[in-house]
Design brief:
The protein is an alpha/beta fold. The protein folds into two domains: 3-94 and 201-290, 3-Layer(aba) Sandwich (Rossmann fold), CATH 3.40.50.150; 117-197, DNA polymerase, domain 1 (Orthogonal Bundle). The chain has 14 helices and eight strands. It has helices at residues 3-9, 27-33, 46-56, 74-78, 94-98, 124-130, 133-142, 149-158, 165-176, 187-197, 200-210, 228-241, 270-273, 278-281; strands at residues 17-20, 38-43, 64-68, 83-89, 215-225, 260-262, 268-269, 284-290. Strands 1, 2, 3, 4, 5, 6, 7 and 8 form an eight-stranded mixed beta sheet that branches. α3 (46-56) links the parallel β2 and β3. The two termini are 29 Å apart. The structure holds S-adenosylmethionine.
Length: 292
Amino acid sequence: MLLDDAVELCAPRAGALVVDGTLGRGGHAAALLEHGVHLVGLDRDPEAIAAVRARFGDAFGDRLELHHAPFSRIPDVLAGRRADAVLLDLGVSSPQLETASRGFSFRNDGPLDMRMDPSSGEPVSAWLDHTDEAGFVDVLFRLGEERQARRIARAVLAARPVRTTGELADVVARTVGRGDGRIHPATRTFQALRMVVNDELGQLATALQAVPECLAPGGRFVVIAFHSLEDRAVKQAFRALAGDGAPTDMRGHPLVVPRFRLVERRARKGEDRDPTNPRARSARLRVLERLP
Ligand SMILES: C[S@@+](CC[C@H](N)C(=O)[O-])C[C@H]1O[C@@H](n2cnc3c(N)ncnc32)[C@H](O)[C@@H]1O
């Protein structure tokens, strides 16, 4: 998604230290490695790490380092090294969505799990077992932007235990109807539950605080977000770091000199690149740069 833009904005050059915090199947990583960078790749999904290891083999020698870790732990993984670029391409990968046994999909029936890292945290089915109605409604409203949150929460909680993606999709569809058929009626419910069990906003908030401090002078932080809450968090964090809205003296000069700048004021938009792909359409790419 926005692959060429993201790679160009990482400004890769031979020998640069570049972190890909969301390896997925290694699409961005491959493009970055072609520029001769030293790539530190992370993914919280062990299957992603295994797939990238199988894809690249020894082709890049010690120019490629792989870590099974969430991107909130980039500072630990870097262990004092400074990055010339850090890339985050948020959300889930197609293989995660398409593999029924991972439990992300309402199209293929599977266990109701949705954890990107199946070795930590709890699956959606367990989260539903202990959640209360108010908490569930809040998750559906905020993370799913679901207008029928109350009805859905009530129906799903009444149907507990809910153990498979098919069961959940059916309860939601029976409750709210099939809609206009453009998107599955359970799309927003699945998105909200995925975001909550993976603490996706918490992961992003930690990275937005920690990653800028890991950048070398001139280093860049490139983030691609698909959810409006995530993009807003990125926009606000980047603007604050670049000194937007900070107090100024009478001549309009900032009182505290910012250590970062916005490479571009506006987000690059997925819909400008690929208007036909529904997932690409909502993508927003933003870039922050550490000043020399
Ligand atoms: C959209 S895909 C990335 C696709 C990748 N850029 C490519 O070219 O193939 C998102 C990936 O990020 C991973 N991911 C999501 N949140 C993460 C986190 N907090 N820490 C580490 N990896 C994460 C997911 O497991 C998934 O593999």
